[in-house]
Design a protein that fits this description.
This protein has 218 residues and is mainly β. Helices cover 6% and strands 40% of the residues. Strands 1, 3, 6, 7, 8, 9, 12, 13 and 14 form a nine-stranded mixed sheet that branches. A five-stranded antiparallel sheet has the order 2-4-5-11-10, covered by helices on one side.
Length: 218
């Protein structure tokens, strides 16, 4: 099982419209590895673009699939149970990894640690540094707190994650960051677990940096 690699381009200096910039200059990726087809065969469409600024990683996800769940309407809740996209990144020295789990409302669960157990959610001042941008037709998100949307739904969400929040020094960035992108929805009507770089475990487990791919910062 070969991990994937992706070149992450530097956006032009002075970008003011992140939405347009990531569309024009970002590198395309697909979250399409169905790693556990017998138990979880459903695969919504999930793709995106990734780029970077001098001090942050920019990831833009586009999703189309059955149902939309967004029960967790504040940061650092159980976002993985919702319709969710995720960015996992390993610290450059390999001592820990960071997970950013984002639902369609742009609410993020962010945590860090060396393994699945004992992870620490990020403090509020760090959460405020994670910028989110979206183009979703969700007019009344408060209704989603109690009832999911049915049928085929399309949504888009992007995040700007400062490199310092993943243990990387913007003034001395490594040439490569180990990472993976995921699409999941543990408690949606059609549970699914997809990845960008394949995961070779017997059951769904995204907390496996040994299966992360490589993001080459170019």
């Amino acid at each position: 099982m070969t991990p994937k690699t992706l070149n992450v381009p530097l956006l032009p200096a002075g970008v003011s419209d992140m939405d347009t910039a990531i569309e024009l200059y970002g590198a395309r990726f697909d979250v399409d590895c169905v790693n556990w087809p017998s138990a979880f065969p459903y695969a919504p469409l999930c793709s995106g673009r990734v780029a970077r600024t001098a001090d942050a990683l920019v990831v833009d996800f586009r999703v189309s699939g059955m149902d939309l769940r967004a029960r967790n309407q504040a940061d650092n809740l159980r976002q993985w149970e919702d319709s969710c996209v995720e960015v996992f990144i390993e610290n450059p020295d390999g001592s820990a990894y960071y997970n950013f789990e984002i639902n369609p409302l742009g609410k993020v669960l962010a945590a860090s640690g060396p393994a699945r157990e004992g992870r620490e959610t990020r403090p509020q001042d760090e959460m405020g540094q994670i910028l989110r941008f979206a183009q979703n037709d969700i007019r009344q998100p408060e209704e989603l707190a109690a009832k999911d949307l049915e049928g085929v739904q399309a949504w888009r969400i992007g995040v700007v994650i400062p490199f310092r929040l993943v243990g990387a020094d913007p003034a001395n960035l490594p040439p490569v960051l180990k990472a993976n992108f995921y699409k999941c929805g543990d408690k949606t009507a059609h549970p699914h677990f997809l990845s960008w770089s394949p995961v070779g475990t017997p059951q769904p487990d995204f907390h496996r940096p040994d299966f992360f791919g490589q993001l080459r910062l170019v």
